Here is the input.
Amino acid sequence: MRLYLSSYLMGDDPSMLRRAPDDQGRALIVFNALDQYDTRLRWAQQQSEQLAELGYASEELDLRDHFGSEPGVLAAVIANVDLVWVLGGNTFVLARAMHASGFAAAIAAPLAAGTLTYGGYSAGACVAGPDLRGIHLMDEPDALPEGYDASWPAPGLGLVDTRIVPHVDSDHQEAELAALAVTWLEAEGLPHLPLRDGQAYVIDGNRSSVA
Here is the structure.
C-alpha cells in the first residue's frame, strides 16, 4: 500500500509522489470535498500544475458521475492510474461521495497490489482513517450539496488505523478547530495523528513515517 496523507497541499517533501523524468504518470484529482463551495475551477488549475511538476498528467475524477453506478465501473476508470489525489474541503461531503460511488472498493485491489498511490490533503487525508470522529469539530457533518442524500453514511476509508488531524499548530484558519479536535480525541482515548501544515503521513509498503 502506498499512501501520502498531507496536512495541506503537497506538503514540504512530496518526494514519494515524484516520477522519474522519463516516466510520466497518470493522476486523477478528486474535488468532491468542494461540492458545496464555488471554488472548483480555482483549485483545479493549481492542483493540475503542481501535479505536472511532479511528473503527472492529470484529469478530474468527479465521483458524482458514479453515484449509484454498477460495481466495477469506477474500478475500471481507476485501473490504469498511478495516483488518485484527493483535495480538502468538507470531509463529510467527501466521505458521502466516496460511499455513494463505491470508491473504497474501486481502489482496494490496486492499492493492495502497490500499483496505485492514494494521496490527499486535509479532508482527503482525514477520510483515510477508520472514521471521522473528532473531525466533526472541524467540518459541518450535515452538509448536503445538491445531489446528495441525508441517508448516505459518511464512513472513513479505513486505510489507516488512526485519525488524521490536519492544520495543527499551523498558520491556517482551521488551526483552532484542529486543536479542539485533538483535545476531544485525547479525552475519548481514540488513536489520532496531529499534522502541521507541511507534514504528511507517508506509508510505502510496510514502512511508515511523518515527513
Observations:
- The CA atoms of residues 61 and 97 lie 12 Å apart.
- The chain has one domain: 2-210.
